Amino acid sequence: MNKPIRLGIVGACGRGASFKTACDAVQQVAIQAVCDTDAERLPGARERLGARQQYTDYEEMLDRAELDAVIIGTPMQHHAPMAIAALERGLHVLSEVTAAVSIDECRALVAACKAGKGVYMMAENYTYMKPNQIVKELARQGLFGTPYYAEGEYLHELKHMNEHLTPWRRRWQTGIDGITYGTHSLGPILQWMPGDRVVRVCCEGTGVRHSDHTGAPYSQASSTLLGKTARGALIKIRVDMLSDRPHAMTNYQLQGTDGCYESSRGGPGDRNKIWLRALSRELAWTDLEAFQNLKELADKYLPEMWREQGAAAARAGHGGGDYFEILDFIDAVRGTRPPVIGIHEAMDMTLPGLVSQLSIADGGRWMDVPDSRSW
Ligand SMILES: NC(=O)c1ccc[n+]([C@@H]2O[C@H](COP(=O)([O-])OP(=O)(O)OC[C@H]3O[C@@H](n4cnc5c(N)ncnc54)[C@H](O)[C@@H]3O)[C@@H](O)[C@H]2O)c1
After folding, report:
1. Which residues lie closer than 8 Å to 287 by C-beta, 6 or more apart?
2. Count of alpha carbons within 13 Å of 3, Cβ hemisphere only?
3. Which of 48, 96, 170, 179 gets mutated to test ligand 1 (max ligand atoms within 8 A of its CB)?
4. Which end of the chain has the lower number of beta carbons within 10 A, N or C?
5. What is the 3-state secondary structure (H, E, C) of 49-112?
6. Residues 265 and 221 placed together within one structural domain of the fold
């Protein structure tokens, strides 16, 4: 029997806490320590998460808590420095998205991964959502033929969060033009195009349409990135965290030579729908949920992990995504298999957004996206 992985969670009063349910469900980790700069709320978080130790200083936790691994659930601008500090101490890292907030930080993070012996994995949980996993499995089995077009959108109005709850978003998510938070949209798409990556992007925006409570302008309301992949596919990513409209954070499309997929856009009666030449000669949609419920199809095309552990996963929250994410991280830490979203996959998901910020500042010019494998 393997010893439980001793875990520290930083950002424990915020997003970091939401990993608790999945940690309990997988039963192979012990939350040893929690860390948060919010000293007032920290004792409550420690209790809720069942940790023995608490710290307000991250580096002190790393040095004193005798950890094997950390989960980083702090605001975006801390992800890369915190991951690097842990990797330098030989620890394993599961980091919230995005991996970093600048290309220089990306380079430093890749260098730390190369130098350190710990595993780095990015917690891109939208890739684990059940519909996205089914599409991934269908793509893996070649049922879309050659994928050549995809879209992802993250439309999540959060001005109220800027002002009151999570003020860091004001600068890092809605204070910079371009795609600041693109991994939930691009992450699943890249998994549907295995072996491919975005090599060039351009980006444009709608202009500034909102100002904050002080009257200062926010970034442009909606930004759209166009990306070309190494294999010639076209990807469109739209991020909008300012426009007044119903939320729709999981909008996706995929088009291949032999099939296509369109997720529900969340409107009344809208459904995830799919067309595959292998299943229907007629060019007509099938409801993805109906598709899952057709037993003979589900047996064949539901990813194995969902067939075997779907019930346990569902209990762990976020539609099972958190559960499988933690399981994958544990497998990577134990050396059973490489992390599903290791450092280079994390860079493939993060760098196009960062380059899009340079493109939009330069009139929407097409720009190359560096390949972290060559760094
Ligand atoms: N994957 C997802 O679905 C998802 C959902 C929500 C948030 N997130 C990500 O999680 C991160 C946190 O978001 P949030 O909404 O929980 O923000 P938040 O501000 O509510 O929580 C962040 C926590 O980190 C703490 N913190 C800040 N700086 C710290 C430091 N230097 N050391 C220790 N603790 C520190 C804060 O006190 C706070 O409790 C962000 O990167 C966000 O993008 C991801």
Report:
1. 271, 272, 273
2. 5
3. 96
4. N
5. HCCCEEECCHHHHHHHCCCCEEEECCCHHHHHHHHHHHHHCCCEEEECCCCCCCHHHHHHHHHH
6. yes
Q: Do both 31 and 117 map to the same domain?
A: yes
Average pLDDT over residues 353-367: 98
Q: For residue 166, how far is its CA from the centre of ligand 1 (angstroms)?
A: 8
| Ligand 1 neighbours (beta carbon < 6 A) | 10-11, 13-15, 35-38, 58, 73-76, 78, 96-97, 125, 166, 168
Give the number of C-alpha atoms closer than 13 A to the C-alpha of residue 303, restricted to the C-beta side: 20
Q: The pTM is what? A: 0.96
Q: What DSSP line would sit under 318-357, residue for residue?
A: GGGHHHHHHHHHHHHHTTSS--TT-HHHHHHHHHHHHHHH
Confidence (pLDDT) at 247: 94
Using a CB cutoff of 8 Å and minimum separation of 24, what contacts does 49-52 make? Answer: 49/9, 49/12, 49/17, 49/20, 50/20, 51/9, 51/12
Give the domain range for residue 247: 126-306+350-361
Distance 214 CA to ligand 1 centre (A): 24
Round to whole Å and give the CA distance between 64 and 282: 63
**Residue 2 CA, ligand 1 centroid: distance in Å:** 31
pLDDT at 300 over 80: no
Residues 92, 115: one domain? yes
Residues with Cβ within 8 Å of residue 250, at least 6 apart in sequence: 126, 129, 131, 184, 263, 266
Predicted pLDDT of residue 291: 65
Distance 14 CA to ligand 1 centre (A): 5
Q: Which of 97, 124, 151 is the last residue of a domain?
A: 124
Nearest-atom index, ligand 1, CA of 74: 24
How many A from CA of 10 to the centre of ligand 1? 9
Same-domain status, 148 and 273 = yes
Distance CA(77)–CA(97), nearest Å, equals: 10
